[in-house]
Amino acid sequence: MFQTFEPASDIGFAAAHVPPLRAALADQGLDGLLIPHDDAYLNEYLPDNAERLMWVSGFSGSAGMAIVLKDKAAVFSDGRYTLQLREQVDQEYFELHNTADVDPAEWLATNTAEGAVIGYDPFLYSKAGLAPYVRMAAKSGFTLKALETNPIDVAWEDQPEEPCAPILPHPDSFSGEGSESKRHRLAEDLKSAKVGAALLTAPHSLAWLFNIRGGDVHASPLPLGRAILRVDGSAELFIHPDKVTDGLPAHLGNEVTIRAETEVMSALADLGKAGVKVAVDPAITPLAFTQALEAAGAGIEEMADPCSLPRALKNDAELDGARAAHIRDGAVITRFLHWLAEEAPKSELTEIAAAQKLESLRIATGVLKDISFDTISGSANHGALPHYRVSTRSDQKIKPGTLFLIDSGGQYEDGTTDITRTMAIGAPTEEMRRCYTLVLQGHIALATAKFPKGTSGHALDAFARRPLWEAGLDYDHGTGHGVGSYLGVHEGPQKISKHPIAQALEPGMICSNEPGFYKAGEFGIRIENLIIVTQPQPVPGGEREMMSFETITLAPLERELIVADMLTEDERKWVDDYHAEVWAKVGPELDGEVKDWLKARTAAL
């Protein structure tokens, strides 16, 4: 199995680890330490050796940070993790705060004396990430100190080794464009920006630019490393020598030099000595590299990672691969839903058993490389926690009269999938059916939206929320995130959110469409499909061409939860058309009882 359900931490972590950390702080003359949930590559998912926030506090959520001072400490996260914080973090050692209510930089200023020295690891913060603390330090009089050695790494006696998985070529048949073509295409952008090189520190960028994949990070096929792309299209790839496989140098070609990752800093010093102007993304480049360039006298041009937008604009091969992956995955989901319909009414099925069954069905395809994230398998009250992660400590039976929410995805060489379905176990209540239908109406509104060039996901977010808003309901997460091509399941720069977004949606981008509703302590509902932004098309009688979305996730919706009378004629047609497509594309992948079951589930409303 690609995921484990044993708890990664417990509430005793704080008592065991805060005292030795404070001793390490004292040894370095520090009054406090900033502890983000990040590794040296600013990844979303961290290798075990980089789980410093969890080590010190016990909190294992995917978003948050801690501040440890001499006499007090606090952990900060968002509303998704309120319950998890209380369950995992010992409040004898840490205050618990929602970042919507308490800003970490302001808390630090309030609780820090003038002249105090607060340490931070410059590999774990970008310039943009540290900026709030820099502003508050100037205002409040404490000092921020970049550390050569992270005190947690000193105090953490059994810290795991850094990952070192082999790096493999990603075939052009899946990527749709060779690395040489990508490098020279981006080099033209560097010329236009009047820079001589770009520093690439994000593993997603390395994976995309060089058409390589690795295994250093759970659920994402990332090769940890760094690169320098030069204005002539040549590049230096900095990776651990043990990651180099036999075919990798030939795959990369003569214009790419493989160097040890430990040589990055000397390479940056050489750029400075040569007077090269270097492009650096201030949002995702660890400060350690920015500071090294500045110390070497290099010119720095702050600009977005040159791989970010091109990576999001999927080419025909990547889009065809995504469609194929979703047909395959749709067959897996259908088999799972049929199995669940048979097993759940027996009242013996647990959340872990459901997640394990779904993963085993994906593995049975013979082409699954990994899951794309740890499965969210939540029944009843657990479904009301949008980012719930089941463990042996929290596992519960899936009982009749409840809703069951499962959010999961797979990593295949031709595409990355992410799908959420909500099922009624036994007879649902009218409230459950009404709320599900409101979420479905929002999902349909976004799926059928038309919008002109230059529109961001911020402008479309309300499409998905309006039916819920009209009923006095809402949800506290984004409506859509970008998705990679056999890469990260969460990929920028595009997203669909109520928060302002600079990046416009462009043809070829893949996003999720996932409105939801969560009734605390009772049930959760989310309907998630992936969608592709289409090329602009004329609108009959219109003056401007409009883009729209192509839905590529293919699996049946929960008929028992749809109140057909609440739907408009167009909404009913969308459901019927969607189910007809599911039957046409997924049906041929199935046989026997499962095929018969799908035929009934996809019949017209």
Automatic annotation (TrEMBL):
Source domain of life: Bacteria
Domain Peptidase M24 intervals: 322-535
GO MF terms, alphabetically ordered: metal ion binding; metalloaminopeptidase activity
Keyword Manganese: no
Keyword line: Aminopeptidase, Hydrolase, Metal-binding, Protease
Residue ranges of domain Creatinase N-terminal in the record: 21-122
One cellular component (GO) term of this entry: cytoplasm
Record-annotated Peptidase M24 C-terminal domain positions: 545-604
Protein family: Belongs to the peptidase M24B family.
Name of the protein described by the UniProt record: Aminopeptidase P family protein
Origin species: Parvularcula marina
